[in-house]
Amino acid sequence: MEDRLLIMGVGNYLMGDEGLGVHAAQKLMSSGLPDYVDVVDGGTGGFHLLEYFEKYPRVILVDATLDGERAGTIRLIKPKFASDFPKSMSTHDIGLRDMMSSLQLLDKIPEIYLFVVSIEYIQQQGVEMTEEVDAAMPGLLNQVTELAVRLSPETATVTSR
């Protein structure tokens, strides 16, 4: 597994924009990524996702965030500690932060790249994303794919933007 890269989309598919990471993972699964890349729909798995972070040396996470930025804004963060995650990580904030804290205690933190896309609010029901967030999807998929290619086993570590 030391030469593998995991892309994981997280979020609640049934809550509109909050499901952005899951929508992205589903699209990336059929996009023809390099052989060293695995893609997982992490849903709202929380601690159940811990095993992936223990197995893979490099992980690209994709998630929605309530950060006050314009809806559809894409940012790449390279968190090293739970406190490095955005303060408002939508409805599963505690799960991701707690998972990172657990990995720190186990001393098994992989190299993590986190793509967040700003959302304006969390819809209570529905699988459709808002127009602004849906419009950001092609750019997000492109950025995730470009990073995955740059993180090939033969290349050096990429720094965050």
Q: In short, what is this structure?
A:
By secondary structure, this protein is an alpha/beta fold. It is built from 4 helices and 5 strands.
Q: Going across the biggest sheet, name each strand in turn.
A: 2-1-3-5-4
Number of separate structural domains: 1
Specify Rg, calculated over alpha carbons.
14 Å
CATH superfamily: HybD-like
Please provide the ordered H/E string of secondary-structure elements.
EHEHEEHEH
CATH architecture: 3-Layer(aba) Sandwich
* Number of helical stretches of at least 4 residues: 4
State the shape. Answer: globular
Features:
161 residues; alpha/beta; 4 helices
What does this structure look like?
With 161 residues, the protein is α/β, with parallel strands linked by helices. The chain has one domain (5-148): Rossmann fold (3-Layer(aba) Sandwich). The chain has helices at residues 20-29, 50-55, 93-106, 131-150; strands at residues 5-10, 37-43, 58-65, 74-77, 111-118. The chain has a 5-stranded mixed β-sheet with strand order 2-1-3-5-4. Helix 1 (20-29) packs across helix 4. The longest helix is centred in the last third of the chain and has 20 residues, at 131-150.
